[in-house]
Amino acid sequence: MKAVVLHEYGGPDKLKYEEWDDPKAGDGQILIRVTAAGVNPIDWKIRSGAMKDFMPLELPTILGYDYSGVVRSVGKGVEGFAEGDKVFGRAGKAYAELLLADLAGLSKLPKGLDPIDAAALPVVLNTGEQLITEAGKVHPGQTVVITGALGSVGRTAVWVAKKLGAHVIAGVRGSQKKAAEELGADALLALDSRQEMDSLGLVEVVADTIGGNVGDALLAKVKPGGPMPPWWGLHQMRNFTLT
Containing H/E element for 69? Predict the structure, then answer.
């Protein structure tokens, strides 16, 4: 098969389009012919070597974490998927014609969803969900501020927090407030308004997808004795996992 292969850490010029051995589905695995692959910050962070102390690579290797495609074959023990199924999900080595997927990171492509659009979803959706459920440990009735709420991760975080029964405040620029009304948040906060930031009361959770001065300012708004600020958790995920 053809694949985009990384032989050494560095810039995009270190990625080479070349031949690679075809993978074969083992027990519990599914072989996917890739239609489209997503590109995420984690890819260039790993490629550049910025994360090699935490996530070292065995070079040469293939990068890429999310994809859409068509099932080519299934391994022993796989149920619910068959050759020809259109799917999308998260797996390793997605920058290739073929990849191996596990059931845990795989879903059938919903009717009407373009496979190219689908390939951009898995890592984003997973990160937004992690931010709320794992880093924030959000519970029903809590008040949650989510910054960058119009971004892909932010939108996911708003949806997950609302599904959990939280009171959600969507943080955006003042000029974005009108557009942010579509998010279905309980309230909007202009992050570039000193007056609105100062008037924000104490909250249980701050889920910050922006960082920097915004994260620092909102840290003071977390109620004493509350959980570790999720913006710190996202900062860690940005650098060390699949966001």
Answer: strand 66-74
% the chain with pLDDT above 90 = 79
The angle at the Cα of 39, spanning 33 to 40, to the nearest 5 degrees, equals: 130
pLDDT digits (tens, 9 = 90+) for 71-125: 999 999 999 999 999 999 999 999 999 999 988 889 999 999 999 999 999 999 9
CB 219 within 8 A of CB 196: no
- Candidates 240, 239, 221, 211; CA nearest to 148 is 211
Quote the CA–CA distance of 114 and 106 in Å, as a whole number.
16
Q: What are phi and psi of 5, to 5 degrees?
A: -110, 140
Q: Which two tokens stand for residue 136?
A: 């924030």
Asked if residues 101 and 86 have their Cβ atoms less than 8 Å apart, the reply is no
Q: Which residues lie below 8 Å from residue 58, measured CB to CB, with a gap of 6+?
A: none
Predicted TM-score (pTM) of the model is: 0.81
Mode of pairing for the β-strands spanning 205-207 and 143-147? parallel
Token code pair at residue 150? 């119009």
CA-wise closest residue to 11 among 40, 49, 53: 49
